[in-house]
Amino acid sequence: MSDIENTPEQVKFADFGLAPEILRALTDQGYVHPTPIQAQAIPILLQGRDVMGAAQTGTGKTASFSLPIIQLLLAHASASMSPARHPVRALVLTPTRELAVQVAENVAAYCKHTPLRSTVVFGGMDMKPQTEKLRSGVEIVIATPGRLLDHVEQKNISLGQVQMLVMDEADRMLDMGFLPDLQRIINLLPKKRQNLMFSATFSPEIKKLASTFLTDPITIEVARSNATAERVTQVVYKVNEDHKRDAVAHILRQRELKQVIVFSNTKIGASRLARGLAAEGMKASAIHGDKTQQERMQALDAFKKGEIDVLVATDVAARGLDISDLPCVINFDLPYNAEDYVHRIGRTGRAGASGDAISIFSDKDERLLVDIEKLIKQTVPRATLEGFVPGGFRSDERHGDRRRDRTQADRSAPRSGERREGRGDGPALSPRREKVDPWFLKPYEPTRSNGAAAAAAPAAPAKPKQKIAALLGGLPKG
Ligand code: AMP
């Protein structure tokens, strides 16, 4: 990618003493200069030190650990075809299948001029092709923990010669309950090895995990930038809980948004919202942990190609995806974990472009908003979404078509192509709503000057945005 931020000093990859095969692969990738995390991590890792890296996806962190791994393994690389000459020497653990695939693609690209072999194993797919690949001999394995243990149990892989272990998105792995699996895996590895751990957050649990398996680690944090945060225009719209879906549909349609991620806190909520938006005629799809691997890949692929405009995602599914530089992210739900808010909005406002982070919230989310504002040390402007009266009816319900819009009969009639949804799902989305709802009649004006931001009434003066930028950290693409 071309918009990723590079180190200001214009350090070159060649300055690290990387092998010509690796440098060639980087040239093939179009990388000219290392990113800040790469500039910091690569020399330290090449010295064999353990590293604790504070970085998230989008910072170039994958190359920051892959390149030293490849360089160090090249010393043992064998051109022989024998599987025995290609034992597993480096193991990269990731929380999600998507991240595993992304890391594996990068590693394969960086290894392509070397005799080193790599592969990826993750759940939700047939084990057989993975088994064949593992048995043919691979030096670098990228894996999700559960599936790796399945392969260990079936004796498809031996971890007895692993020299380097990477835990990518360690915080997410803990969130997803992988700790027991991680411990089992670590017990299978040689005691003497180099360990790297990457995490976007440093919770007490993460620090505890780090202290148990890192030896005298060097902590690396990527250069922080205010630029990213400064370019993100944040706003929260307060609406009634059961109008949240309508509000999202309204915003998407009114602003004619394309390439938007809408975050939902639950898998079921993500599916329902995507279905509802699709029934409204929008090109929407959901991505979450209950989807099959194939469905997730297809949705992601379609989104990247622009065949899908709206990707409704849970944090777990979205985390680790190389999707950034979006014009807008929408929080259908405010996240339970305030740091997730920062990660979510960090997907927009990059690459010198402005971005919008829009959150929908209802009375019951007040505490979540307070937590977010405490973390980011600023007040997110509140605004009223035209037609949605917090604590009351939507304006169309009050003034115009309430009887028609609110009747249970109307609500229960499934439209063609839409599955009937259960109670408490919020109002069904009407495909022809523009005709009856006054809020669609008002033309949308550009974000920064529009009602959203301008009519916003901050509860307290906004404070400096350093903290949020620090959390966004990483790779200021802008
Ligand atoms: P990551 O944070 O590892 O997921 O990387 C994010 C994106 O940046 C990926 O698409 C990488 O291919 C790309 N990338 C990594 N390092 C560089 C670099 N030094 N120059 C340009 N792009 C890079």
Describe the structure.
The protein has 478 residues and is of the alpha/beta class. The chain has two domains: 2-221, 3-Layer(aba) Sandwich (Rossmann fold), CATH 3.40.50.300; 232-408, 3-Layer(aba) Sandwich (Rossmann fold). The chain has 22 helices and 14 strands. The chain has helices at residues 20-29, 36-46, 61-74, 97-111, 127-135, 145-153, 170-175, 179-188, 204-213, 226-231, 244-254, 267-279, 293-305, 315-318, 338-345, 366-376, 395-400, 402-406, 408-412, 433-436, 451-454, 466-472, and strands at residues 51-54, 90-93, 118-121, 140-143, 164-167, 194-199, 218-221, 232-238, 260-263, 284-287, 310-313, 328-331, 355-361, 382-383. Helix 15 (338-345) packs across helix 16 (366-376). Mean pLDDT is 78; it is low at 223-228 and 395-478. Adenosine monophosphate binds at residues 1, 4, 31, 34-35, 38, 57-63, 106, 322.
Short description:
With 478 residues, the chain is an alpha/beta fold. The protein has 22 helices and 14 strands. The chain folds into 2 domains: 2-221, P-loop containing nucleotide triphosphate hydrolases (Rossmann fold), CATH 3.40.50; 232-408, P-loop containing nucleotide triphosphate hydrolases (Rossmann fold, 3-Layer(aba) Sandwich).
H/I helix tally:
22
Biggest sheet, spatial arrangement of strands: 3-4-2-5-6-1-7
What is the β-strand count? 14
Low-confidence stretches: 223-228, 395-478
Task: Tell me about the largest β-sheet.
Answer: 7 strands, parallel
CATH architecture of the largest domain: 3-Layer(aba) Sandwich
Silhouette: globular
What is the average per-residue confidence, as pLDDT, rounded to a whole number? 78
Looking at CATH, the homologous superfamily of the largest domain is: P-loop containing nucleotide triphosphate hydrolases
How many domains? The number is 2
Oligomer classification: single chain
Return the CATH topology of the largest domain: Rossmann fold
Strand residues, percent: 5-15%
